[in-house]
Amino acid sequence: MNEPIYVTQPSLAPLTEFSALLEEAWASGILTHNGPLMQRLERDLCGYMGVPDMICLANGTCALQLAIRALDLTGEIITTPFSFIATANIIAWERCRPVFVDIDPNTWNLDPTRIVEAITPLTTAILPVHVFSAPCDVLAIQEIANHHRLKVIYDAAHAMAVTCRGQSVLNYGDISCVSFHATKLFNTAEGGGCVTGERALAARLRRLRFFGFDEHKDVTDIGMNAKMTEVHAALGLANLRHLDSVRANRRRKYGLYSDRLGELAYLKLQQFDSGEYNYSYMPVLFDSEMRLLKAVKALAGRNIVPRRYFCPSLNTLQQFAPIMHLPVAEKVAKCILCLPLYDSLSEKEIDIVCECISGIE
Ligand code: T4K
Asked: Is ligand 1 within 6 A of the CB of residue 179?
């Protein structure tokens, strides 16, 4: 390969569609402060996903931060060690303690059977991740939360356009937090949002993103600046029109990969119920880190750059001490490689990736 093949490339609408929307902002001179394009994006996203309310924000990390604040969480929050660093960081940033619980070896999501033993009098919430978009066991998690009077925030950063049990996966929990980062299925360059079915919570999230201003511009809460700009919202509106075809295209490519790699004895794919996935990532689990490293080397030889999302397992990081040993997450984190998957990736390129991986011993 002359040009490197990276793990992903942003999905982008034709530039003309983006610029047509920007013309509206140029004409009105409104660039931010919950402007008309952002409000339209919120409405369109609700309609597209079938969710009651979407609060668009500057990024997915802000979404998690505001969710923790809006629910007034303190103490300990039970979470997964197999995630991007933002998940645990924002819990600690909000002066709570992330308590890591091991994951399921097949879905790679928080294992609900291990949650109860981690609950203490300080626990206020469970914060699972729908990792790579595969839905968590939402019913089991909600049952535990109800029984122990805990809040549930889903880190749904990867889980745009995913249904679970006949409705958007974002409808589960008290608040779901999604990311619209450039590397996600749906992007606004930087961006994110909170979804909630509770009106009062939605109103509070709106105040928190806007310095604590309420709808009359009176300061009635302690807020910050987490607004999405009109420029980002315009990109979102343009990209949203193409989301169905982006998802379908990725699904087809995911299928090509799984046809070619699914039978390899040393590889496993993520387990998810059919349809409940958005194909934004192509993660494969090797039977050992050594084999993964051989694959990385073989791919590097063809100028292909996969990513080790999410290594190391977050429970092994010093900043989240005391360190607990969580064998499933530690093994999975060492053995997962995300292969290139994006709109313009060709079948030939997928073949080359698969050749590299099939050829290792
Ligand atoms: N929770 C979870 C579970 C998450 O995964 C994330 C973010 C969050 C919370 C927080 O959401 P945000 O606050 O980010 O909205 C990416 C993203 O920065 C991050 O959003 C994402 N998860 C995380 C999993 O991955 P990297 O380290 O992959 O970025 P980078 O720059 O290495 O990009 C990967 C490849 O993508 C590059 O090789 C080239 C390509 N690329 C990247 C960018 C930024 C492009 O082609 N264009 C671009 O603009 O972090």
From this structure: yes
